[in-house]
Amino acid sequence: xxxxxxxxxxxxxxxxxxxxxxxxxxxxxxxxxxxxxxxxxxxxxxxxxxxxxxxxxxxxxxxxxxxxxxxxxxxxxxxxxxxxxxxxxxxxxxxxxxxxxxxxxxxxxxxxx
Amino acid sequence: xxxxxxxxxxxxxxxxxxxxxxxxxxxxxxxxxxxxxxxxxxxxxxxxxxxxxxxxxxxxxxxxxxxxxxxxxxxxxxxxxxxxxxxxxxxxxxxxxxxxxxxxxxxxxxxxxx
Lengths: 113, 114
Fold this sequence. Notes:
The complex is a heterodimer.
Chain A: E1 4-6, E2 11-14, E3 19-25, E4 32-38, E5 45-51, E6 54-58, E7 61-66, E8 71-76, E9 85-95, E10 98-103, E11 107-112
Parallel strand pairs in A: 2-11
Antiparallel strand pairs in A: 1-3, 3-8, 4-5, 4-9, 6-7, 7-8, 9-10, 9-11
Chain B: E1 5-7, E2 10-13, E3 19-24, E4 31-37, E5 43-50, E6 65-69, E7 75-79, E8 88-95, E9 104-105, E10 109-113
Parallel strand pairs in B: 2-10
Antiparallel strand pairs in B: 1-3, 3-7, 4-5, 4-8, 6-7, 8-9, 8-10
């Protein structure tokens, strides 16, 4: 079993739709939960991060973390064609004495005009 | 520099040749990471540096892979006797300190072994 599971998609939705992206994880040592956005032929860029459980909102984006269920989500409201990219979840924490950052497989998202 | 710089951006090499990939992190960032991203796969951790030291090399896929960092700045990832399965995008990231958030990625080196 992978430490972080993410549905690779692809996911295709019409412009204006609400998008929900999710990841599950198995290691309870993770403390920071991140979402990266990666455009084609570019490196991932940090979109949002959350420390421990809870919600965080930034404009049209909302990140949720449920540590009891080991489940994180990213919601995109009023989706735009410019949101079309691959979204990767990532999580970090001290695991067996070493700092570890683990990424999900990434979900390829297309917003259709 | 303003961001993480990687060179070359693209590299095509023949099977069996050695290649060197370079990463120039953000000035002042003490931690540097190498990841590999294959088509349809997530980011596979290879190695990280804290300063010039690499405490954990277990992520390197084989002994054909090696990495070094000098002066707490530029890092080089070397792949010897390249194989076709080494074809991937090699991404470098840096951060102010180890752990937490705030990793800044470069645009990667797209390696194709023919």
